[in-house]
């Protein structure tokens, strides 16, 4: 088959693309970062992800399956979450016009059109666009991704390595269920080859309280620190203060609200197999040694 992956040179898209190439498939990418290093040695032809419907339609001609990883984490300039919803609609329209047969779309756990959080209602709007497109589809709903390019786990480790204590928003009792990015990639590849329409949560085998996860990270990297509970808004202010020095956005109010609302836990059985403790053990000498900047990654 010929498969298009948005963001094949980026985070989850890179793992997905590697697995598809290993299966012998032809892969192209639509990317907003054409100058990003190509990890596939020219095997993956790149086209613009510029949300010009006519141009994207031409790029997608002959494609059998579109794997869509596109989204924005937070609003910056014109890259807002409502704009991301509109951009996704344009991408799906282009795929339909190009004759793409199937869409595998990466969403988030617990999306809802009624959510007060734009990240979650935006994901729900995108799912509706995909399901109403007339194309065959699979919707995969991961939570927090774990991997070499991950933001959250790495930057918790970064802070633990450099500060004498760690400030927990609230009491840290709210839960999350991380998933290893390559486990997600395996589920995506299965979805590419399936003929069924379905929606599944793509989550790992571990459910932690946030406090338990921070403790585990500290233990594995040899940087156990006192964990201090602070009011969520104070923790957010502290993160925003650090952001000035790191020239990034460490944490957003929406992320705090979504985490504390338990939206990053699934009610379904886990489909990923990699335990966070095992991944941390294998990567303990490098995780958190450098800060992972969202702005540098997406807004060079």
Key terms:
300 residues; alpha/beta; 7-stranded parallel beta sheet; two-stranded parallel ribbon; 11 helices; 17% strand; globular
Distance between the termini: 33 Å
The description of the largest β-sheet is: 7 strands, parallel
Broad structural category = alpha/beta
The amount of beta strand, in percent, is 15-25%
Provide the succession of SSEs: EHEEHEHEHEEHEEEHEEHEHHHH
The total count of helices amounts to 11
Any idea what the shape is?
globular
Q: Low-confidence segments, ≥5 residues, pLDDT <50? A: none
The chain-level mean pLDDT equals: 92
Share in helix: 40-55%
Rg measurement, Å: 19 Å
Could you explain the architecture of this structure?
By secondary structure, the chain is an alpha/beta fold. It contains 11 helices and 13 strands. The protein has helices spanning 12-22, 53-60, 81-98, 118-131, 152-162, 181-193, 210-221, 232-246, 253-260, 276-283, 294-298, and strands at 2-6, 26-31, 45-48, 65-68, 102-106, 136-142, 145-146, 166-169, 175-176, 179-180, 198-202, 208-209, 227-230. The strands form 4 sheets. The chain has a 7-stranded parallel sheet with strand order 3-2-1-4-5-6-11, with helices on both faces. It has a two-stranded parallel ribbon with strand order 7-10. α1 links the parallel β1 (2-6) and β2. α1 (12-22) crosses α6, α3 (81-98) runs parallel beside α4 and α5 (152-162) packs across α7 (210-221). It is globular. The model has no long low-confidence stretch (mean pLDDT 92).
